[in-house]
Design goal:
With about 350 residues, the protein is mainly α. The chain has 13 helices and no strands. The protein starts with a helix and ends in a 15-residue tail after the last helix.
């Protein structure tokens, strides 16, 4: 079992929170450790937003606790009523993420009010905020996330898995039920890919040149994900219309197989181009000619008359298959154009490391 950066950072944040509590001689340092757990975020930017939100949320919890204790005491019923009010206020102010820690602050202050209650409340509030600050420091300094590498490699691995199945499907070598299960896994992989893209988009660059390169990379990665989605949609259509594909004329099957092989090779080499593994000006299919959209559509129209006479439902399904292949090709070409343009203007700004791959 591999320990991820998030796991290690959680441990470090707890250690730092407890250590700082000891240095400042704060009672009940356990609350600082709890706060550090709640406040740790996957990105530096989210950690910054988390501090702002938790200051507001904890102020609500602390202020509510002080008012209720001074006005009504600290019976179990009063604490529950105060908790309801804290949750309501957080929801009204759109601070849903801070509800848990606000309630911790509320209970920590209301549980054992002493003679110097206001001072006690300030100390508990400060202890919890120390944990929040500790989490931010750890997120900023230790093991900063590298979402670009994760995004590139998860996309690459997912694309390779999809293209492998496309090759098998066009050669009638895929196992129907196994492919169906893998398609579901790949669909879930695309959801994770979208989440990684959001994480990468939230990462902030503080230099103008880096911001320009980052904005163009965001466009490339968005198109990269869209292209992978189109390849998965192509695989889904091949799987769904497997019988119709097998009933098409052999010559037309060979055309579609050749076209998909061309698109797959192009897609693979575009990904390698982005990682700097091949030259930007390299041709993706030297010696082979792939059909353009018009040629592929003309060949489909040539089959239309025969298909319409034998099975109109089959014609409709074949039309969907040809359509998605054309869309896949358009997305690959657009991705190629974006990457070529990026490398022309930002030759030294591609930070993707190609030393290690990660799992889907």
């Amino acid at each position: 079992m591999k320990l991820g950066a998030r796991i290690l950072k959680t441990g470090i944040a707890i250690i730092l929170a407890l250590f700082l509590s000891q240095i400042f001689n704060l009672p009940s340092p356990v609350f600082a450790g709890i706060a550090a757990i709640f406040a740790l975020q996957p990105t530096v930017y989210r950690s910054y937003l988390s501090i702002i939100e938790h200051v507001q949320g904890n102020l609500i919890g602390a202020a509510t606790a002080v008012v209720f204790v001074m006005a009504f005491g600290n019976s179990h019923f009063i604490i529950g009523l105060a908790a309801v009010l804290v949750i309501t206020l957080n929801l009204k102010l759109k601070l849903e993420n801070t509800i848990s820690l606000s309630l911790v602050t509320l209970i920590a202050i209301m549980e054992t009010p002493g003679e110097d209650f206001i001072q006690f409340a300030l100390i508990r509030f400060s202890t919890i905020m120390l944990g929040v600050v500790s989490a931010f420091i750890v997120n900023l300094v230790f093991l900063p996330p590298r979402y670009e590498n994760k995004l590139y490699y998860k996309n690459t691995i997912l694309s390779e898995e999809i293209t492998k199945w496309i090759r098998l499907s066009t050669r009638h070598a895929s196992e129907h039920q196994l492919l169906k299960a893998d398609i579901e896994k790949m669909r879930e992989g695309l959801i994770k890919l979208d989440q990684l893209y959001l994480m990468y988009r939230e990462e902030r660059d503080y230099f103008k040149n880096n911001k320009l390169a980052k904005s163009r990379k965001l466009v490339i990665y968005r198109q990269m994900i869209n292209t992978t989605k189109k390849s998965l949609e192509t695989l889904k259509r091949l799987h769904r219309y497997e019988n119709e594909f097998n009933q098409m004329p052999i010559d037309f099957q060979d055309v579609l197989q050749h076209q998909l092989d061309c698109l797959i090779n192009h897609h693979e080499q575009v990904m390698l181009k982005f990682a700097g593994k091949i030259r930007a000006e390299a041709s993706y299919m030297e010696g082979e000619v792939c059909l353009n959209k018009k040629q592929l559509f003309d060949l489909f129209l040539a089959q239309k008359k025969d298909l319409a006479e034998t099975n109109s439902q089959m014609l409709y399904h074949v039309m969907q298959l040809v359509s998605i292949i054309m869309e896949y090709g358009e997305n690959v070409e657009h991705l190629d154009t974006l990457i070529t343009s990026f490398q022309s203007y930002h030759k030294d700004d591609n930070n993707v490391s190609i030393e290690q791959k990660t799992e889907i």
